[in-house]
Amino acid sequence: MGDLMHAVGYRKPLPVDDPESLVDAEVPVPTPAAHELLVRVEAISVNPADVKTRRQADPHGFRILGNDAAGVVVANGPNVSRFVVGDEVYYAGRIDRPGSAAGYQVVNENIVGHKPASIDFGDAAALPLTTITAWEILFDHFGLQPGDAGTLLVIGAAGGVGSMVLQLARARTRLTVLGTAGRGESQKWATEMGAHHIVDRHDLVDSVHAVAPDGVDYIVSPFSRGNIDNYAAVIRPFGHIAAIDEPTGLDLLPLKPKSVAWHWELMFTRPILLPEDPYQHELLEKTAKLVNAGKVRSTATTRLGPLNAETLRDAHARVESSATIGKVVVTR
Ligand SMILES: NC(=O)c1ccc[n+]([C@@H]2O[C@H](COP(=O)([O-])OP(=O)(O)OC[C@H]3O[C@@H](n4cnc5c(N)ncnc54)[C@H](OP(=O)(O)O)[C@@H]3O)[C@@H](O)[C@H]2O)c1
Q: Average pLDDT in the 258-276 region?
C-alpha cells in the first residue's frame, strides 16, 4: 500500500448539523495517469455544488468532497505538457472524481491554470469554478467579444457566480451591468464587483425598467424558479438568458414571443464530456493575467481553517444558507 493522506468527505447524505455529515479519513495518495497532475492542495473553496453532492449523492462508501482548489504540482503523470513540478496552480476539478478536500488530488492538465502570482492560495481557490461558469456564459454562450456593448442583468449578483460575472463583464466588455442584491452588505459588494445599478429581485420588472427602459439584452440566472415571466417582461427581442440552476418542470414558453435564446450552462460539461478540450485551461490562464493586472480580484470574503471535517461543516453551513457574499475559502 502506498502513502496515506488526510481527506474530508462523507459516508451517507446527512444534514450539515450532524457530526457525521462530513468526516475525516486517511486514504491512499492517488497516482496521476496520462495528462494528470498530482497537486498538493493548499486551499479550497466551497460551492453550492459541494452542498448538493453531500446532501443528495450516494457516496459509494467514502467520497472526498470539494471542487475548487489551489496548490502546488508535486508529480506529473505521463504526457503532461503544460506544467512542471513546483508550479502553483488553481482549478475546479471534476464533480465525478475524488474531490479537493484532501492533502493531494489528481487533476487533468486541460482544466488547470497557473495560479495568479499576485494572490495567495486562499484567494486563488475562491476563483476557478465560478470563473469558468461566468466565462463560459459571457464569452461562449453569449458570444460576447471584448468591447461589446449592451445591457446585462445578473441575478444573485453578490453570490459566487454573480461576483465573477460582474467582474469579467466589466473587465472585458462595455456592457451596462444590472445586478440583484437584497441586503445592504450584498449591495455594497455587488457595486464593488462592478454593478452599475442594483435592482430589486422582489420587484424585478419595475426596478429593471427604471434603469433600463428598453429592457436588457442578456440575463444570467442562478435562481430561475418563479422568474420566467419576469424575464419575459424585461428581456429584449432576440435576447439571451443563461441558467445554471436545476429548476425542474420549468415552462419556457413565455419567452417564445420575443424569440429568446435559453442557454444551459454546466461548467462540468467540458471536463466530463470533452476532456481533451483545453478551453478551461486557457480561460484560467487569461483570468490569471487579469488578476495579476489588477483588473479582476479574488472573491474570497470568508477564510476558514484548518482543512478538517469540523471546519468544512462550518463552511457548508454558510454556503447552504444561500446568503453568502463572494466565496467561503478553507486553507490547509
Ligand atoms: N451550472 C453551473 O455550472 C453552476 C456553477 C456554479 C453555480 N451553480 C449554481 O448556481 C446557483 C448559485 O451559485 P452561487 O455560487 O452564485 O451561489 P451563492 O454564492 O450561494 O449565492 C448567494 C447569493 O445569492 C443571493 N440570493 C440568494 N437567494 C436568491 C434568490 N432566490 N434570488 C436571487 N438572489 C438570491 C444572496 O444575496 P441577496 O439575497 O442579498 O441578494 C447571496 O449573496 C447554485 O444553485 C449553484 O449550484 C451552477
A: 98
Neighbours of 193 (CB within 10 A): 26
For ligand 1, is residue 48 a contact (CB within 6 Å)? yes
**Is the Cβ atom of 194 under 6 angstroms away from ligand 1?**
no
Question: What domains are defined for the chain?
Answer: 4-127+269-331 (3.90.180.10), 131-264 (3.40.50.720)
Q: Which residues of 222-261 are buried (b: 16+ CB within 10 A; e: fewer)?
A: bbbeebbebbbebbbeebbbbbbbeeeeeeeeebeeeebe
pLDDT digits (tens, 9 = 90+) for 51-74: 999 999 999 999 999 999 999 999
Other beta carbons within 10 Å of 54: 25
136: cell is 463560459
At 279, is the secondary structure helix, strand, or coil? helix
How many angstroms does the Cα of residue 279 sit away from the middle of ligand 1? 24
Minimal-distance CA residue to ligand 1 atom 33: 156
